[in-house]
Prior knowledge:
The complex is a heterodimer of chains A (113) and B (117).
Chain A (H helix, E strand, L loop, with lengths): L3 E4 L2 E5 L4 E7 L3 E9 L5 E7 L5 E4 L2 E6 L4 E6 L8 E11 L2 E6 L3 E6 L1
Parallel strand pairs in A: 2-11
Antiparallel strand pairs in A: 1-3, 3-8, 4-5, 4-9, 6-7, 7-8, 9-10, 9-11
Chain B lengths: L4 E3 L2 E4 L5 E6 L6 E8 L3 E9 L2 E5 L6 E5 L5 E5 L8 E8 L12 E2 L3 E5 L1
Parallel strand pairs in B: 2-11
Antiparallel strand pairs in B: 1-3, 3-8, 4-5, 4-9, 5-6, 7-8, 9-10, 9-11
Amino acid sequence: SQELEQSPQSLIVQEGKNLTINCTSSKTLYGLYWYKQKYGEGLIFLMMLQKGGEEKSHEKITAKLDEKKQQSSLHITASQPSHAGIYLCGADIITDSNYQLIWGAGTKLIIKP
Amino acid sequence: KAGVTQTPRYLIKTRGQQVTLSCSPISGHRSVSWYQQTPGQGLQFLFEYFSETQRNKGNFPGRFSGRQFSNSRSEMNVSTLELGDSALYLCASSSLLKRGRAQETQYFGPGTRLLVL
Lengths: 113, 117
């Protein structure tokens, strides 16, 4: 199983509706990153969370880190067509005393007009 | 600051050939990481270079190799291409000296889409 699980795998949302994507780690998190990717293009950095309970917002996107649950959620308010794409989370974890950056499989978001 | 650049953006090769991809990091960034992204496997880490030294390596065969130059630019090479090597190859740079409790964001290039026929 994946060390960093993203859910859901895909999401179809009516334009204007809110949505949430989750990213859960099976290992202790030290940092959590959210990226967005348009099909076939590079990853665009959205935000980084470092401390438990930290919450950051950028335009209509808010991300929170729950250190106890080893989980981060990405919430989009009043979705727009420009929000469509693949959202990936990356996490700094420790494995065998080494820090490692691992990645989720991504959540594909489609916005219906 | 200019972002991470990758060349070429698209490439078509045939099985058995070799290919070299190039990545120029953000100015001042000394760490460069390479990833392979496919629909089935997601984002897979290939290797990371820092100051011309390979610091970390993923679980890929020896056909995949890389190097970093003194100006931090990096190249990756894939020899004896196989159909399964068709993928989007992404390069990311950061100013991170050593991955540890101080996190540092990686910034990605647009990728090179490789198609092996």
